[in-house]
Amino acid sequence: MKTQNQHHLSNKTKTGSRLASIDALRGLVIVIMLIDHIRDVFFLHVQIGDPVNVLDTDFSHFILRLLSSLCAPIFVLLTGLSAYLYSLHHSRKQLAQFLFSRGLLLVMLEITVISIAWTGTVPPEKLYLQVIWVIGLSMILMSMFIYLPRSALWLIAIVGIAGHNMLDNIILDSQHHLHTLWAIIHQRDWIELTTTLKARTSYPLVPWPSIMVLGFLIGPLIYNSTTNQLNPRRLLQIGGGLLVSFVLLRSLNVYGDSPWFGGDHIGITIMSFFALTKYPPSLLFILFTSGVGCLILAYFDSRTTNYLVRPLTHFGSAPMFFYITHLYMIGISYLVFVISFGKTQGKYFGFDHLGYLWLMFIVLIIPLYFMTRWFGRLKQRRRDIRWLKYF
């Protein structure tokens, strides 16, 4: 049996400054994200709505979609938790400066490097304001929120997460003078930036900052600064509470997402129950994904030396590097397939079977692992290169 000190050492990276369990969960999330983004590109001919229309969506595609739903909310929750851990060794001003500068960098990367990767054009013909954009904006807001008392932070977290679905019926058309602002805040839509450039607010802002604030707030509940350990029991309690709340509220079918229904067979009913709205994330979506995230983090806390878990820490130690690199690798792979086989699905090249998606995943994950591990170690080794920490 591990002693407490052994567990303390196993849950840290070589530098002793990062919790390996958090890196492992972050790594799991971005590995799932790789699968989902391959599906986005190579199954673009198979459209999946939001929330998923379970009557015309294949079960295997639904499962992939459900898995991918874990990515963004867990990542944002971990960003808030990491901000709390950062605050333990830095002043509030230093934390605010880091959050603001990194948030601004993420927004700039989204509208330049990342948009080019998605569109394949320079400059990008359209801007897709997605998860990196909303994480960046949320970090900028967090740089101001951290000066508020904890009671105000709890109010931001609870009202933003639990109350934003009351805004769902406010839909503004493109001619409304507040349309652009509302599209950024809560309504997923296209906005005109210039006569030739449009932007898609794929990830409206609300309630993502509230999820980040929640991660910041649960930090002192689950982390012991004396031992540098997470508290798995507390994580299980929080995760279990979130999932029980999800099941109870979803069963009532009165608030928090589009209603579910009973289908012709149990499979349709189950799919309908878990067909949750991601854009923007509903209350039920957040309860489900955050609850699962807490349970996985509790599981990883004592298993960071496990041969299956440990590689995930390498992915999670350099998430921004992985994110940008994987988008370009997927984009280049797609161009190679188009040149080799042509556009097999109307105006797209597309796979005929999900098995090819998993094959593509294996082909890409191996070089991505070694590249990300190299970059993560470079970050650890060259702390004098300050910009490396942003990736």
Description:
The longest helix has 28 residues, at 92-119. The chain has one domain. The protein is globular and about 60 Å long. Helix content is 62%, strand content 3%. The chain has helices at residues 4-10, 20-42, 59-68, 71-87, 92-119, 131-145, 150-163, 179-185, 208-222, 232-252, 266-273, 283-301, 310-316, 319-341, 354-381; strands at 126-128, 190-192, 198-200, 223-224, 229-230. The relative contact order is 0.16. With 391 residues, it is mainly alpha-helical. β4 and β5 (229-230) form a beta hairpin.
The number of helices is 15
Helix content: 55-70%
What shape does the CA trace take?
globular
Strand order of the largest sheet: 1-3-2
Span of the ends, CA to CA:
36 Å
Q: What is the ordering of alpha helices and beta strands? A: HHHHHEHHHEEHEEHHHHHH
Rounded average pLDDT: 91
Radius of gyration: 21 Å
Q: Strand count, sense and closure of the main sheet?
A: 3 strands, mixed
Strand content: under 5%
Low-confidence stretches: 1-10, 12-17
Overall tally of structural domains: 1
**How many beta strands in the DSSP annotation?**
5
Structural class estimated from helices and strands? mainly alpha
Helix-strand layout with pairing:
Blueprint: H1 4-10, H2 20-42, H3 59-68, H4 71-87, H5 92-119, E1 126-128, H6 131-145, H7 150-163, H8 179-185, E2 190-192, E3 198-200, H9 208-222, E4 223-224, E5 229-230, H10 232-252, H11 266-273, H12 283-301, H13 310-316, H14 319-341, H15 354-381
Parallel strand pairs: 1-3
Antiparallel strand pairs: 2-3, 4-5
Helix pairs in contact: 2-3, 2-4, 2-12, 2-13, 2-14, 2-15, 4-6, 4-9, 4-12, 5-6, 5-14, 6-9, 7-9, 10-12, 14-15
